[in-house]
Amino acid sequence: MTTTFDKRMSIDDIIASLSDGMTIGIGGWATRRKPMALVRALARSKLKDLTVVSYGGPDVGVLAAAGKIAKLAFAFVSLDHIPIEPHFKKARQAGLKVWEMDEGMLHWGLRAAAMHLPFLPTRCGMGTSVAEHPDLRTIRSPFEDGEELIAMPALRLDAALLHVHRSDERGNALILSPDPFFDELMARAADRVFLSAERIVPTAELGLPGNARFHPFERAVVTGVAEAPFGAHPTSAAPDYEIDMKHLRHYVASAESDDAWNAYRAAHVDVDQAAYVASVGGADAILAAPRPVY
Amino acid sequence: MARHTLTELIIARAAKAWADDPEWLATGITPVPRLAAGLAKTLYNPRLMITDGENWFARDPVPLGPRGGFEPVIEGWAPYLRTFDNLWNGRRHAMVAPVQIDRYGQTNISVIGDHAQPKAALLGARGFPGNSIHHPNSFFFPAHNKRAFVEGEVDYVCMAGYNPARWPGGRKPFRLELRLILTNLCVMDFGGPDHAIRLVSLHPGVSFEEVQDNTGFPIHRDGGETPETPAPTDEELAVIARLDPHDVRATIIKGNPPGRPEWG
């Protein structure tokens, strides 16, 4: 019997398969390789009451501004070169419900979920305010040291949204950027994993086994994959394209007033991905963004 | 001594924080700590590992800002997963720039005001909690005042400090070790009784009273005269200039004051 594993979906079909109240993990880190096409589709959907888990950047800002986040599990939200994410700041100051943790605790919670463990012990958070979160417990080492450690609970995700550079139709994916961040753990921590990919290519064009180091997880964890060229914009998907600082500044200005946000939203969020790319100057403009300096 | 700015004096002194470290990662977050780490590696401790600010270990410190044609020689891979593994292993000394610090050395970059509905939402705790108990940390504050050096505890404790009331079972967290605090007024460490914050040196023209008046808690002072923070050498100034070709350092302390008030 010949079976095909064609997991191709549209961006909007992916979002339509999600439900109110879900816990959604968003891959990438701050301004790098955020699945922004999926995030924008989420922002314009009817979904509500989401718990978002993210090493946050404009993904959190866009979803906060669109009123989608009931609770944010995070360690930071930043636009890197612009340290404070303005929409996050606004929502947070208005009382957005958060679970704030250490970057390493977030990593560890995802890893516990990825391993189907109830928790993993960690020292991260000891002696700080993050240890006061009511969902945390401590555990004493059963060995001679007797050290008290934080039991970081598994951060199980209903769905993970990740942006990759290449995928075949079965969900064999490559992340080509210099830092894969924690997408692999999000993929394993999630019940369902949806990828947006710069390009969906025939399996042979993935360049394996030469690209083996860029293959982050098995296709078995992937539920669906949507082709979305420039799907990370305005964040980077280096080496394919870099952060668009010009657009990020425009995005930051959209937090100045409701009118500014509504105008931003109409131009760049309430449109499909092809119209979005056109709205930010087209492919050539995106590809022309210079490599950022850190 | 060559004419220099207060910021250059601080960078040169801050570099000494890493001078005796083993073969560790030196991380300086924000321009002054980063320049100090680069200076330390260049002149005092070539064993230090340093990154390009992104995902790679660089053989030599990378200058701040646009690099022209400069391409660093990459000597290793530094994705975040590896950064966590390295820091949990303890082979790192970071110098960071929090917005608040208290008498215990607890620092904050998360929020000003109430955590549930803050007056100002900042970054979030980032990696501060984990950093604070896995490797040594030092601090830089460009404006030494009572908003930064707070009375009581910081609004949200992002880094563990010498406050046993917050230690589980009263036991000091694994590798908690706070080293230096550099400000626009002085250099301090944690060498007072029970790790109290202690004055190490005063920048030229600054009095102990001025430091104390701008601090929300008592600063410990050893007996005898407090030394003056040493001026940077010509060699140090040359390296700082090379690592900061666009003079970002001139924008860090309000008014970019000279290193000695009589030069004002």
TrEMBL record, chain A:
UniProt-listed SUPFAM superfamilies: NagB/RpiA/CoA transferase-like (SSF100950)
Top-rank taxon, per record: Bacteria
GO molecular function annotations of the record: CoA-transferase activity
Protein name: Coenzyme A transferase
InterPro entries the UniProt entry points to: CoA_trans_fam_I (IPR004165), NagB/RpiA_transferase-like (IPR037171)
Record keywords: Transferase
Stored PANTHER family: ACETATE COA-TRANSFERASE SUBUNIT ALPHA (PTHR13707:SF60), KETOACID-COENZYME A TRANSFERASE (PTHR13707)
TM segment ranges: none
Pfam families the UniProt entry points to: CoA_trans (PF01144)
Automatic annotation (TrEMBL), chain B:
Bilayer-crossing regions: none
Key words, A-Z: Transferase
Record-level Gene Ontology MF annotations: transferase activity
SUPFAM superfamilies: NagB/RpiA/CoA transferase-like (SSF100950)
Gene3D superfamilies noted in UniProt: Glutaconate Coenzyme A-transferase
Name listed for the protein in its UniProt record: Acyl CoA:acetate/3-ketoacid CoA transferase beta subunit-like protein
Organism whose genome encodes this protein: Rhizorhabdus wittichii (strain DSM 6014 / CCUG 31198 / JCM 15750 / NBRC 105917 / EY 4224 / RW1)
Lineage: Bacteria, Pseudomonadati, Pseudomonadota, Alphaproteobacteria, Sphingomonadales
